[in-house]
Write a structure and sequence with these properties.
By secondary structure, this protein is of the alpha+beta class. It is built from 15 helices and 35 strands. The chain has four domains: about 210 residues, Macroglobulin (MG2) domain (Immunoglobulin-like), CATH 2.60.40.1930; about 190 residues, von Willebrand factor, type A domain (Rossmann fold, 3-Layer(aba) Sandwich); about 100 residues, Immunoglobulin-like, CATH 2.60.40.10; about 80 residues, no CATH class. A hairpin with a 5-residue loop joins strand 11 and strand 12.
């Protein structure tokens, strides 16, 4: 009955004259694919891929390549070889490509990366009628010079410049993406990241050869995005609109020898026993099963459980997602648009959208994850487009974003990999010689246009004053350098950077690193004497005098002077008044030892009345120094008391629905943002930027939360239900045009450069 209802609704949606929005980008997304695969066969691959897993990884891509696409394969070492010419993909092409893949070795002497990309650009055109992309695998760097060539580095540098300027220009001109894959730490990761950045491609890294296949798969998903259905515990649902599905089932090393598929009717499909409408490819590492006109219902895969197991489908009913780029930077804001389309038309019928749940799930670079339900049955979007802002991402590495829609009779899923890179290097350290804190911003690639790139610094001093300034580029140091001194007095300083980079080709990127916090002036481990009259032992201003009974021979009566009282014959034991708490000084001040006291006693015994007067003056100096230290201690105490009081005043009460000082919690939170299995979902309100700046508190929006409804607050004990590394923007912060603005202020947006 439910399926009939949905079918009637869907049919009514597709009838002419109903309110349907056109998919503005369908003309590009419906084009077939042109994929060029480039594989490194240099000698270093013997160590990084000793079992030659490049072959099964390539076979996986060949099997996944859709009908109607065209593809080609290149290998490169010192020389470039077009292993499989570009041609239309069909069964005959696949078989030929698999046989050619057996020729992949690790015998190349050098790494002619520039030549490989140059040759693979053959035939690419801006009006080719294909979505064009390249998947590049290498474990090395540009290396075209022989080992003993005295001009080797010069030649390699020239080759890199040629690659970044001339070769990549061919791909940019035709809109082709290059997805780069680094195998091992030996690869020039900075160069591969730059290649991906210049061509809007995905950069990823396989830690070892065992991860190579799944890394290849991530790149392939970017080159050939495919519709999926969710697969949970090897179970998935196929609806009546699906014309074909392909199940990819990975095998573990100690997994089952045979995989099988159970159809809704109970039929069991295997490699050796399956109907004519099924094609089964068996590999030592995976099984790939394609079934045309599959039976609707729930299917089960009898196989090893693996998070990378997946089911792609061909269907007129599809999930369209925009706004998730392949390469991102710290501080980027992603405006995500999600819509269900049928035959290229956006579904806007409220009766359908009310029966559809839309969920976003994000897995961070460190493996933590969170999810949020984006749909509201009571308020479906009038234009059929769900908009969300994904921001506050800060971990470098690979992210996974999954969008899942689930109706009463269908399920759809789209998965995206994206990589956060840092095209710049930031170093900061105290320069004790100058008494300043030094911040350096340096490009990781020589392809950065330093004349057009800019760095802005926002410096906050202990008195809460803020200075915004442009950081000067030092050509000798090849870096933007900012030096911060204690111009506003002692205490805590912070520096926020905003980097706007432009590559030589004109590619723009923006980076907002984490805040740099430090204290000025620097605390040194040596206390300098306040006066030259202090003895050679260097007794500090707040030194402790160790009490001890020192044996002293009595002075004979006949030698006693009438001007010196008997009690002055021996040095008085003086206990100076201790200053108020100055632990930093006391901890490092030297202590007077027994030897020091003995030496002092000897001086007094041998001195005449004039020397005694000098000794008394010495104690006066000590008392003066101690008094000064006490005054400083009181000042420090007052400063700390005032600062802590201000911090307390800045916090917002939990009763107000705002969580204060989230940054102090750091990485204590892990796990799912929404505990959907614990009853009713509880959501965290997000404080507005204006409120946060007014009272100095930090709301949940700054720390990062997937749940952002203003209806309820979450107690501090439940804070591990979200991950502060990223956040999905609250609906109320969306602009009128659907975009999201999450900046606290506009200080680093380079508004003055818009004319450029």
């Amino acid at each position: 009955m439910a399926f009939l209802l949905f079918s009637l609704l869907l049919t009514s949606v597709l009838m002419p004259g109903l309110s349907l929005a056109a998919d503005e980008s369908k003309e590009d997304k419906n084009l077939p694919f042109d994929v060029r695969i480039i594989i490194d066969i240099s000698g270093s691959m013997k160590q990084t891929d000793p079992n030659n897993l490049r072959i099964p990884a390539l076979n996986l891509l060949l099997e996944l390549m859709p009908e109607g696409a065209q593809a080609g394969i290149w290998t490169f070492g010192k020389y470039v070889n077009n292993l499989v010419p570009v041609a239309v993909v069909d069964d005959q092409w696949r078989e030929k490509a698999k046989k050619s893949a057996l020729e992949i070795t690790s015998l190349g002497l050098q790494t002619n990366l520039s030549g490989a990309l140059n040759d693979a650009a053959w035939g690419l055109k801006s009006d080719s009628g294909f979505q064009q992309s390249v998947i590049l695998l290498t474990d090395g760097k540009v290396d075209m010079a022989s080992k003993n060539d005295p001009l080797g580095e010069q030649k390699n540098t020239s080759e890199r410049k040629k690659l970044m300027s001339e070769v990549l220009e061919k791909y940019r001109n035709v809109g082709a993406n290059i997805h780069t894959l680094a195998l091992s730490d030996l690869a020039n990761k900075n160069l591969l990241q730059q290649i991906a950045l210049e061509t809007d491609g995905l950069y990823s890294q396989a830690v070892n050869a065992e991860e190579l296949m799944k890394a290849f798969l991530r790149a392939f998903d970017r080159a050939v995005p495919a519709e999926q259905v969710p697969m949970e515990d090897n179970t998935f649902v196929i609806d009546g609109s699906v014309n074909e599905f392909t199940a990819l089932i990975f095998k573990s090393k100690n997994g089952s020898a045979e995989s099988a598929l159970l159809a809704p009717s109970g039929a069991r499909y295997t490699e050796l026993d399956h109907p004519e409408n099924a094609r089964w490819h068996k590999d030592i590492h995976f099984d790939l099963v394609t079934i045309k006109q599959p039976e609707p219902g729930t299917w089960i895969a009898e196989a090893d459980l693996d998070p990378s197991n997946r089911v792609t489908i061909l269907s007129d009913l599809a999930l369209n997602v925009e706004g998730i780029p392949a390469t991102i930077f710290p501080g980027d804001k992603l405006d995500v648009a999600i819509k269900l389309v049928n035959e290229g038309e956006v579904i806007t019928k409220p009766e359908i959208l009310r029966l559809t749940d839309v969920t976003m799930r994000v897995v961070t670079a460190s493996g933590r994850e969170g999810s949020k339900v984006l749909s509201d049955p009571e308020n479906p979007p009038s234009d059929g487009i769900y908009r969300e802002g994904l921001y506050r991402l800060k971990e470098l590495g690979s992210y996974q974003v999954d969008i899942v829609t689930e109706g009463r009779t269908f399920q759809r899923k789209r998965s995206f990999s994206m990589t956060m890179i840092q095209p710049i290097e930031i170093k900061h350290y105290p320069d004790e010689e100058k008494g300043v804190y030094r911040v350096e911003v340096r490009a990781l690639s020589d392809n950065l246009d330093t004349e057009r790139s800019r760095v802005i610094a926002k410096i906050k001093s202990p008195d809460d004053n803020t200075i915004i300034q442009s950081v000067v580029y030092d050509s000798e140091a090849n870096a933007w350098i900012s030096e911060v001194g204690p111009t506003k007095g002692p205490g805590e300083y912070s520096v926020d950077l905003n980097v706007r980079g432009i590559t030589q080709s004109g590619k723009n990127f923006k980076v907002k690193p984490e805040t740099i916090v430090f204290s000025l002036p620097f605390v040194t481990e040596e206390i300098v004497s306040a006066t030259d009259d202090i003895d050679e032992k260097g007794v500090g201003a707040s030194a402790e005098i160790v009490e001890a009974e020192v044996p002293v021979d009595p002075i004979p009566e006949e030698t006693a002077s009438e001007e010196v009282a008997p009690e002055e014959a021996q040095p008085e034991k003086v206990e100076p008044k201790e200053p108020e708490a100055t632990p930093e000084v006391e901890d490092i001040a030297p202590k007077i030892t027994m030897d020091d006291v003995s030496e002092t006693v000897e001086v007094v015994e041998e001195s005449d009345s004039e020397e005694v007067d000098e000794g008394l003056a010495w104690w006066v100096y000590v008392i003066l120094v101690l008094f000064n230290a006490a005054v400083i201690g009181v000042g420090v105490w007052w400063f700390m008391f005032r600062k802590s009081g201000a911090a307390v005043d800045a916090q917002t009460s939990m009763d107000d629905g705002t969580i204060a000082d989230l940054e102090e919690l750091e990485d204590d939170f892990a796990g799912d943002f929404d505990s959907l299995d614990e009853g009713e979902e509880e959501e965290i309100p997000i404080a507005s930027d204006d409120a946060s700046q007014a009272d100095g508190s930090q709301g949940v929006g700054d720390a990062g939360s997937l749940d952002s409804s203003p209806e309820a607050s979450k107690p501090a004990d439940d804070m591990d239900d979200f991950d502060e590394d990223f956040s999905i923007d609250p609906d109320e912060d969306a602009n009128a045009d659907g975009s999201v603005d999450t900046d606290e202020d506009s200080w680093g947006e380079f508004d003055s450069d818009k004319k450029e």
